[in-house]
């Protein structure tokens, strides 16, 4: 990764649509936060190099690698 490349972190990642869109525009997805196993399996398959942080309520913001862009999907709740 060069110093001029943009990076992305994805909260409430779902199936990784924001990382996919970013990657198609030359943005490097660095990490994602998601708790549902089925969507996580999809993003892990498509982005094996991306760090998967798990539950957003258990994250320490100071310990997460900084990114240029933070995306998020609306949490899916019944």
Let me know the average pLDDT.
Answer: 92
What is the topology, as strand order, of the major beta sheet?
3-2-1-4
> What proportion strand?
15-25%
Helical content (DSSP H or I, runs of 4+): 10-25%
Number of strands: 4
Let me know the largest β-sheet.
Answer: 4 strands, parallel
Count up the helices.
2
Which stretches of 5+ consecutive residues score pLDDT under 50? none
Note the gap between the termini. Answer: 40 Å
Keywords:
2 helices, alpha/beta, 4-stranded parallel beta sheet
Layout: helices, strands, pairs:
Layout: E1 7-11, H1 17-24, E2 28-33, H2 37-46, E3 51-52, E4 69-72
Parallel strand pairs: 1-2, 1-4, 2-3
Q: Your description of this structure?
A:
23% of the residues lie in helices and 22% in strands. It is built from 2 helices and 4 strands. A 4-stranded parallel beta sheet has the order 3-2-1-4, covered by helices on one side. The longest helix has 10 residues, at 37-46. The chain starts with 6 loop residues before the first strand and ends in a 6-residue tail after the last strand.
